[in-house]
Amino acid sequence: MIEMASIIVRRSFYASASQARSVGVLGIPMWRGQKKLGTDLAPAKIREDGRLISGVETVVGKPVRDFGDLDLSSYSQCDKNVTHYMAKTAQSIRKSVIHCLRECEQLITLGGDHSIAIGTVTGHADYVKEQGRDLAVIWMDAHADINTPMTTPSGSWHGMPVSFLMHEMMAHLPRIEDFKDWPSSISAHALVYVGLRDVDPQERWFLEKLQVPNFSMRELDALGIHKVTEIALDKVDPLGRKSLHVSFDIDCLDPLVAPSTGTPVPGGMSLREVAVLAEAIASTHSLTVFDLVEVNSLIGSYEDASKTIQSAALITRWMFGDGRQGNTSSSGTLES
Fold first, then answer.
1. Which N-terminal stretch is annotated as signal sequence (predicted)?
2. SS3 of residue 75 by DSSP
3. In this structure, which long-range contacts are made by residues 153-157, counting pairs with CB atoms below 8 Å and at least 24 apart in sequence?
């Protein structure tokens, strides 16, 4: 375990000293994938706070390119035909992600609820396909988000995105006219879950039947975060050649450090546990898209919202190479 920890830290140090990278940020102000207003405000609140973007700029050594917020005004989030709305917005998100990735090396998408991942992951998959590469996804969440419109207990689309992304789930989806031409993006073995602790019975059946790699908080407690990190990365990208997509739901964290979110579940990951995985991800130099979703500043107090946004900012910095031992930016020099 100690040996694994030293490997992660050492690799993270060299990653932080790498050449300046172009990073973009795209806001996706969406709330319709669940039932609580407020996730649509997150992109603006995170920008207003400033810590996330300024922190990433410090780490990567150059200004972040802000692509602004995706305009969803042409699709009413109050429309009764939720399925039609989801299909239209997913297509818009998909196209926007492709556009952004053609303009920058790495992209941060600021949700919004987790239903945005139907579009972000598909757009990323389209982009890497153009390059002849494969995609790997790390899904960090308290929930599995692999329900279908037929199995969902809540009817909320933020609990369904994986079922619209995974090849093997196509056989379990009902025919949906609005999604009839929607392509699946990833195989079951190319996605790994970390942080699960609230999984519906039907979702557990899907995970077991399709043999989707997953680590609940029980596995994290039993194995330790360093071992889980090692196995998770090896499962989805054993050769280190894929383009990596991290889809991070803030409820992956324990509510003590991220209280302002719609579906908090006690007993979540600590900031230190996420830091270990984030630093290892940064050290691979493979991270291309980072989704940050389900921050809701309307839940809890002002202090709760500020704490949640601060946690989000820290995690994003770590994902982009700010190791806890210190960051050596591309503009810095090393003296003997």
1. none
2. coil
3. 153/200, 154/35, 156/33, 156/34, 156/35, 157/32, 157/33, 157/34, 157/82, 157/86, 157/113, 157/115
* φ and ψ of 306, to 5 deg: -65, -40
Better pLDDT: 211 or 330 = 211
Beta strands of the chain (E only): which ranges? 23-28, 65-69, 106-111, 135-140, 191-196, 214-216, 243-249, 287-293
Residue type, 272: R
pLDDT at 13 over 50: no
Which residues are annotated as part of the binding site? Answer: 114, 141, 143, 145, 249, 251
Query: pLDDT per residue over 310-324, tens digit each?
Result: 999 999 999 999 988
Q: What is the pTM of this model?
A: 0.91
Kindly state the tokens that stand for 159: 């609990």
CATH class as words, domain 2-319: alpha beta
Bridge partners for 186 per DSSP? 166
Residue pair 66/73 in contact by the 8 Å Cβ criterion: no
Q: Give me the mean pLDDT over the 328-334 stretch.
A: 42
> Which residues participate in the annotated binding site for Mn(2+)?
114, 141, 143, 145, 249, 251
Q: From edge to edge, which strands make up the β-sheet containing 191-196?
A: 65-69, 23-28, 106-111, 287-293, 243-249, 135-140, 191-196, 214-216
pLDDT tens-place string over residues 148-172? 999 999 999 999 999 999 999 999 9
The one-letter amino acid at 261: T
